[in-house]
Specification:
12 strands; alpha/beta; Rossmann fold; binds beta-D-glucopyranose; 4-stranded parallel β-sheet; 13 helices; 6-stranded parallel β-sheet; single chain
């Protein structure tokens, strides 16, 4: 955000705080924090994936506790809906927007209108591209997420430890692997895939891993809107075209649990059964059904990104901007949105396999033992 805008945002914040102090009930949110901080718009992409529901709830609770009113909206992966939801938030007088975009390039004009009205904009988990109108970015280390997805696959095959350290006397393979990436309109998809390929490529070059379909470019392996059914049908096509002659798929790089579930359905549909021959499959988000699938051995690993911590970071950033302070960031290099490098805070993702479900997910209260079953 430009200095002028920051000053204006501070003034706007001070004004709303001042007004709130005069209003009898403090104007507030439901969270008991007293309210009065003003309205914060939270734009989430879809409810079709559990993680965004948790993100939305965590953001709403934490913002309300900090004294803000919250307009939380989900756009069901429809770009026009998300644009109009954000327009509405601005019309309602939002002082800040926290946005997880469906397509990071489509919000330029609505965000520029918001910024012109001195609304602070925080990119949430997904980078907002091609716009000046984004102040800060709260996310996880997305390149590391991709590396961890690769390491989980390599670990499942007995080739490396979970941190990527090579294992002495590892099997020579060759192992057949197929690759999936996320949605090309989501900047994260590139970070995940590039991180993963940095780790997998040496094994492909050495002939330890073989991609029988030959599909190794992100454009070939991408999955529009991260859709599980789209992934399922691509996996079905790959199985029919490349594995009908008796060859086995040994591993699948999957960037997201919903895609992993599509891949699992395709494998089951073509006669694979869990056990010795079942492929190693990665994932992301620690969604409940996929944690169950890790427990039952259908999925090897997921990447756990604690949405409560991400929400906390985004709320800290929002409050800091509104109060005219500089939020804490730890990366000012990697997230170039095409117009500027957006100052970012990257949280650490964690690989979850069968062995650490309890310590990572249950002990932290993310899921209960009963939910996992
Ligand atoms: C998020 C992932 C998520 C994916 C699909 C990405 O932008 O970083 O956590 O799996 O979107 O929703």
């Amino acid at each position: 955000m430009k200095k002028k805008s920051i000053l204006a945002a501070v003034a706007a914040g001070a004004l709303t705080l001042g007004l709130a102090a005069c209003s009898p009930a403090g104007g507030g949110g439901e969270g008991g924090g007293g309210g009065g901080g003003g309205l914060v718009g939270v734009a989430m992409p879809t409810k079709s994936s559990e993680r965004w529901i948790q993100d939305g709830e965590a953001l709403k609770n934490q913002l309300e506790d900090a004294g803000y009113d919250v307009d939380l909206q989900y756009a069901e992966d429809d770009i026009a809906t998300q644009v109009s939801q954000i327009e509405n938030m601005v019309t309602k007088g939002a002082v800040a927007l926290i946005v997880a975009a469906i397509d990071g390039t489509t919000l330029t004009s609505v965000l520029e209108d918001a910024a012109a009205g001195d609304v602070a904009v925080i990119a949430y988990d997904r980078l907002l591209r091609d716009t000046e109108a984004v102040s800060y970015y709260a996310t996880f280390d997305n390149f590391l997420v991709g590396q961890q997805q690769a390491w989980s696959v390599l670990n499942g095959l007995g080739l490396t430890e979970l941190d990527g350290t090579p294992i002495d006397g590892a099997p020579a393979g060759p192992f057949n692997i197929e690759l999936f990436a996320g949605s090309l309109d989501d900047n994260n998809a590139f970070f995940f895939f590039e991180g993963a390929m940095e780790e997998l490529q040496p094994f492909i070059d050495a002939g330890t891993l073989v991609v029988k379909s030959g599909q190794t470019d992100i454009e070939q392996v991408a999955t529009l809107r991260w859709d599980g059914e789209t992934a399922q049908s691509r996996m079905e096509d790959i199985l029919t075209a490349n594995y009908s002659g008796g060859d086995q798929v040994d591993a699948v790089l999957s960037p997201y649990d919903g895609i992993s579930r599509g891949i699992i359905s395709a494998l089951e549909g073509s006669g694979y059964t869990t056990g010795e021959e079942w492929p190693i499959i990665s994932g992301q988000d620690a969604e409940l059904d996929s944690v169950k699938a890790i427990n039952s051995g259908e999925q090897y690993a997921t990447i756990f990104k604690d949405t409560r911590d991400l929400a906390e970071k985004a709320v800290e950033m929002t409050v800091a901007v509104l109060e005219g302070e500089e939020p804490e960031v730890n990366n000012t290099e990697d997230y170039d949105n095409g117009v500027k490098v957006v100052p970012s805070f990257l949280l650490d993702p964690v690989i979850v396999v069968q062995d650490n479900i309890t310590s990572e997910l249950v002990d932290s209260g993310y899921w209960t033992e009963e939910e996992i079953g």
